[in-house]
Design brief:
With 306 residues, the chain is of the alpha/beta class. It contains 6 helices and 17 strands. Strands 1, 2, 3, 4, 5, 6 and 17 form a 7-stranded mixed beta sheet that branches. A 5-stranded parallel beta sheet has the order 8-15-9-10-11, with helices on one face. A 3-stranded antiparallel beta sheet has the order 12-13-14, with no helix packed on it. It is elongated and about 65 Å long.
Length: 306
Amino acid sequence: MAQEKVENLVIIGSGPAGLTAGIYAARAGLNPLIIEGMLAGGQLTETSEVENFPGFAEPVTGMALMAAMRTQAERSGVRFEMDEVSSVDFSGAEKRLDGMMGAYRARSVIVATGAGARWTGLPGEMKYKNKGVSACAVCDGAFFKGADVAVIGGGDTALGDAIYLSRIAKSVALIHRRDSFRGAKVLVERVKAAENITLFMETTVEAFAGDGAHLNALKLSGGREIAVAGAFVAIGHEPVTKFLAGSVELDGAGYVKVDGVKTNVEGVFAAGDCADPFYKQAVIAAGAGAQAAIEAQNYLQKGGYV
C-alpha cells in the first residue's frame, strides 16, 4: 500500500516516455516515483519486433526493449508502484492522485499514460473479444497456430501484426479500407512478399460472427464472408487520458494539450503518446520523457524543493 507522503515527482505510466523521464529525474536527484499502471512497459510490450530504436543493430522485441529500459531505471534509483491512477486533483500546489491501491501527493507530475487500442465498435466485436477477437497479435497470436486469421487495418501496427502472424498462422487475411497502405514501405514489401498473406483492399469489416462461444467468420463489405478463427484489430489507438478530464486541458480527441511538454497546469507535464496525436514513435516518446523530466527539475528548483 502506497504511503501518502509528498513526492517531488510522480510519473504516471511506464512506457518509453515514463521510464526515460524516470531515468533523467533520478539522475537529477529528484527521487521519482513511477506509477506503472496495469500494463507495465506500455503498448510497446505488445510489439513483436522493433527495428528503428537507436542502439540496437538487430531487431529487438518490444518486451525486451522495455525490460532493458526498466532495469536501467531501477539502477538509476527510480521507485515503482504497481497501481493505476483513476482520478487526479491538480488544483493546488500539491497535486493529488488517487489510485486503486492508494493515494499520492506530489509537487510535480509527468503524465505518460500512452494510448490504448481503438476498437471498431462493430456488431459482434465485444461479444467475441478474447474469444477470437484481439487487439494484440504478440499477446494472443500463439493461440492461433496453424489457423486462419485476419488483421484489420493498414498502418505500421497492422502490417507488423500480419507479418508476425504469418509465421504462426496457416493464413492471414489483411483487410484495409483504402487502396494503399499508410505504413512503412519496408513493411508493405514484406507483407506483399509473404505467401500466406492475402490482401483485401478497399474492403471493410461489417460484423464479427461466431457460434456464440468463439469467432468463426468476418462479414465483409459487398456481401462477402471469410472464415477465420481469430481477428486482430489494428486500427490505431486512443490516448489514456479520461481520468484527466477537467484537470488539464485536452483536445477534441482526448490528447493532452502541451506547449512542448508543459500542460496548462503549472507543475504538470505530459510526454509520449498521450500528448502526441501524430508521430507515435518510441524514440520520440523517450525524447519527450527526457524533456519533461528536465522541465520538472527546473520547476522544482525554482520552487526551492530541490
